[in-house]
Amino acid sequence: MIQFLLNRELRSERALDPNTTVLQYLREYRGKTGTKEGCASGDCGACTVVVGELVGERLRYRTLNSCLTFVSALHGKQLISVEDLKDQGRLHSVQQAMVDCHGSQCGFCTPGFVMSLFALQKNAGAVNEYDPHQAYEALAGNLCRCTGYRPILEAAEQACCAKQPDQFDAREAETIAQLKAIAPREMAELSDGEKRCLSPLTVAELAEVYAANPDARLLAGGTDLALEVTQFHRELPVMIHVGQITEMKQVQIADRHIEIGAAAPLTDCYAALAAEYPDFGELLQRFASLQIRNQGTLGGNIGNASPIGDSPPLLIALGADVVLRKGASSRTLPLEDYFIDYKVTARQPGEFIEKVRVPRATPDRLFRAYKVSKRLDDDISAVCAAFELRILDGVIDEARVAFGGMAAIPKRAMNCERTLIGAAFDTETLERACTALEKDFTPLTDFRASREYRLLVAQNLLRKCFVEQHAPKTETRVTAYV
């Protein structure tokens, strides 16, 4: 059984298909049709809802794509949909802002925008404080096809600057008490009698359950796994949800490494990675949408073994490791050795990614990362490049160069690295290294880019790294290339 709050109503679900998404649950089981299905793939934001959960003694509100969230992920949390904002016949201030600023035309996307504005308002700073960048980030995952974004951004400004206490603030203590009462205390199971989803609470429980069900699909954020249900109409007989395991959601900074639990949402990884590696932070801000980053995990981005995943090239260039667990045993593997072939990894049956270890930055190393995609925001890479160089007295002492989108797996450019190591970082070395990339990769042509384009872009990104390294220190870098 799982328990959660549907706004203020306690819901206990015992016999429900665990393949049911939150979007389906709202519309088909609860008759709440304000939440819309636009794409069923997490691209448009029409299905945006807000989930509240306890972080210590406080409530935290985050947006999610309900089309990619299975109901089991709600266990112990509060679900808020657009119907819940109106109170005693009065529109919520974010709804009123959309009306006042003429932010809606056909209205199909409006509920999703309203929910993103609601979360933006809740997470904004002091009253009358408006941060345009924060608003752009909050709304980047919501698409509007008829209004245009200016009036919606004006609504965001009004909602933040005219922020007033609402019914959620008034009932905060009550909600916290309700969530404490239903906090998970033992492993939960949601099953319709045929399909089931298990939610262990500890790494040890996960290891035991996974060993007993090695064919189960591991569910963290579900932003990739849920597509098998929503896009390919497959059924997932057994899932193991890892989102309740506190140990796997932690981000800890040690002397030499950042340790990131495999179930930590990307939003929670941002501060630690951006502080050490600003380019990593910039890439994470372009990693899909805020709704996706609030769900998706670093462990999942590695585990799905996509050749165009954004984080693996950066992690490989930084020399990151993955800690793999099976039963009571664990092993540490360099991330570059985790990927074997397209969608094939070194993970054994019953083995799972427990955490990722990222070396901390040191002043003697240069790190640069670039993402090239058709859209600036909320898009998949055509090419993703990462470079870590150690330069001593003008000579490259160490080099790690990694790319995504250039092969069946994210991988290092070994010929390029050998050309760089031991040479002066000058234009002659640069061009020899660019030529060496032709031996490292034979990229494919697909709808995102041609083979020739990918190879030229990879070479030009290395040139860009060189130019930035030799540019005057006062010159502003531009890393957001499309």
From TrEMBL:
The keyword Cell wall biogenesis/degradation does not apply. InterPro entries: 2Fe-2S-bd (IPR002888), 2Fe-2S-bd_dom_sf (IPR036884), 2Fe-2S_ferredoxin-like_sf (IPR036010), 2Fe-2S_ferredoxin-type (IPR001041), 2Fe2S_fd_BS (IPR006058), Ald_Oxase/xanthine_DH-like (IPR016208), Beta-grasp_dom_sf (IPR012675), CO_DH_flav_C (IPR005107). Residues 190-363 form the FAD-binding PCMH-type domain. The keyword Flavoprotein applies. It is an enzyme of class 1 (oxidoreductase). PROSITE patterns: 2FE2S_FER_1 (PS00197), 2FE2S_FER_2 (PS51085), FAD_PCMH (PS51387). Keywords: FAD, Flavoprotein, Iron, Metal-binding, Oxidoreductase. Residues 1-85 form the 2Fe-2S ferredoxin-type domain. Its EC number is 1.17.1.4. One of its GO terms (molecular function) is FAD binding. SMART domains: CO_deh_flav_C. It comes from the Bacteria. NCBIfam families: xanthine_xdhA. This is Xanthine dehydrogenase small subunit. It comes from Stutzerimonas stutzeri (Pseudomonas stutzeri). The lineage of its organism: Bacteria, Pseudomonadati, Pseudomonadota, Gammaproteobacteria, Pseudomonadales. The gene is xdhA.
